[in-house]
Write a structure and sequence with these properties.
One of its GO terms (cellular component) is plasma membrane. The chain has 127 residues and is an alpha+beta fold. It has one domain: Hormone receptor fold, CATH 4.10.1240. It is built from two helices and four strands, in the order ααββββ. It has a two-stranded antiparallel ribbon.
Length: 127
């Protein structure tokens, strides 16, 4: 059974009901993501694929084996308006598992396009 979002939201709020602006936005992003993860149709009817997930940074859809998967920079970032066209990337291996960082159990990801640039002086594409 689906947990009502209102119930989830109540659980996510801190005990005194206050959250910083960014944290509040992150919670909203997380909730939207959980809803998506629950409701989105599968990417393939059968066979291997990388599982959709929320890694506490970005909301990842299912991935096709042997492909890069990219999503927009999360909108809860305080500098989101400076990275509107930025993407964060993961790689779905031919085996249908997310590529891991070297010597790690954590998935590899490239979020360089979503990082805050210093005073916005950086030339696009130099990273």
């Amino acid at each position: 059974a689906m947990i009502p979002p209102s119930f989830l939201y109540t659980c996510l709020l801190s005990s005194d009901g206050s959250l910083s602006g960014v944290m509040q936005k992150w919670k909203e992003y997380q909730l939207q993501c959980l809803k998506y993860l629950y409701e989105a149709p599968p990417i393939v009817a059968e066979g291997k694929f990388c599982n959709r997930t929320f890694d506490n940074y970005a909301c990842w859809p299912d991935g096709l084996p042997g492909t890069y998967v990219n999503v927009s920079c999360p909108w809860y970032l305080p500098w989101a308006n400076t990275v509107l066209h930025g993407q964060v990337y993961r790689f779905c291996t031919p085996e249908g598992t997310w590529l891991l960082k070297e010597n790690s159990t954590l998935p590899w990801r490239n979020l360089s396009e979503c990082e805050a640039s210093d005073q916005g002086t950086e030339t696009p594409g130099t990273k």
